[in-house]
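Data card: per-record layout.
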Amino acid sequence: MAITVIGTVFVDIKGYANGKVNSDTKNVGHVEFAHGGVGRNVAEAIGRAGGSVEFISSVSNTAQGADVAARLESIGIKTSRMVKTDNGMGQWLAILDGTGSLVASVSEKPDLSKLEDLLLRQGEEIVKNSDAVVVELDLHDLVVQAIFAWAKQYDVPVYGIVGNLDVLMGKRSLINDMAMFICNQQEVEEVYGISITSIEEAKLAARDLTAGGLKTSVITMGAEGCVFYNRLTDEFGYVPVVPTTVIDTTGAGDSFFAGTVFGLAHGHLLQQAVECGTHLASWTIASKEAVDPQISRHVQNHPLFQGDVVLK
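The structure for this 312-residue chain is written out next.
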């Protein structure tokens, strides 16, 4: 089954402090560069888990941009419609403390005009020939709305993901048209004004998110695990985290999203799909990269990731 991921590519510049970060002085540590971007992370994670993926994005017309495409192609991800343009990739500067937790970050957005032009010209064909679509909501409103309209026309499930909280604030109306919506506790509290102090309150919040017609919702709560609600079956659920050694928490949310979509694409019920997401997030947290490059090895003998792909 073909999963199309539409989103951005970023260059991640990560500074790892040896201990607690002090904003008033220099912090000893080291700096690394890595491939990133919400859309790119999701595409790579699904591909490494064994999914059939086409990634539609833009990259800078540089050797670094070519390297991004080559890495994705090396694991079987299709990139033939990837647009090459000046400033086609964004940059994300992140500071992490000695525990691998994100302390601060600064983001520079890419120029997505040529990508958005491609999507307006070819988007209907792309959606029509997909079994599922993942779209990064940070794209221009006109493009995102068109993708949702085509998905509805051709009965293709669409999964939206956001890279910035302010984007979610402006696109809440699209959530009701998604097959599933995943957000974290902070987003629920700030965007919807719902206070969450316990797992039971999180479950009720997940149900509230489906009041406008959304089919399923998932709320992640960091080390506390995640909860979900399926409106079609009136089912609540909770999945704890998979214990791991924390190296770098960045990219964990993208891997969780990717694993959950992958699980649904394999015909899993929501409980098992969320468990897939939890495992991918755990493996990524234990890696310094935005997506753990060892995911392919991890899933080989894991029962959650085996079997024929059947999209539900």
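Known properties of this structure: The radius of gyration is 18 Å. Confidence is low (pLDDT under 50) at residues 308-312.

See the next section for split statistics.
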